[in-house]
Amino acid sequence: MVLSDREIKECIRSGAIEVxxxxxxxxxxxxxxxHLDNKAMILDPTKITEDHINxxxxxKIAKLFTAFNGWDDICIMxxxxxxxxxxxxxxxxxxxxxxxxxxxxxARVGINIxxxxxFDAGFEGTATLEVTNFTRQPISIPKxxxxxxxxxxxxxxxxxxxxxxxxxxxxxxxxxxxITSVYQDYEKNS
Length: 190
Prior knowledge:
single chain; 10-stranded antiparallel β-sheet
């Protein structure tokens, strides 16, 4: 069941949800808004030299991205793909999960804020946001903008093996925009 504002505040007080990185939280009726950090990984189309991207090739995937950090505003170019991140670092208890949604106010100007969307019980780290501009105009977003919202749910019982204890947790303790680690799936099968 989705947590209400009261339940979110109680989970924060009890430590079932830990949020750090900002002085004041913005809690809505059933979500927590997350703020945009000033770090980015930008998929550089000029670095795509082959006819496809192979998900099992760690080095080639890493070379496709350019780090862009320390900005006051980031200009999202039409049709391009950016990895951004939240200022907030969130830690989930073993019986709490989270879902991220883009804010409608941001989407209504043509910016799609997508994340893999789901945060497992036991996860700890910042949220990586996959961002695309669907318009024909560049759109500038200032750092610390409330960029997306996290919805929380409580499970009936704690996870048997939370994300923090899974051997194959790829993004536990991530900080900043984190490129894919999907190549690890293929290394296990080699």
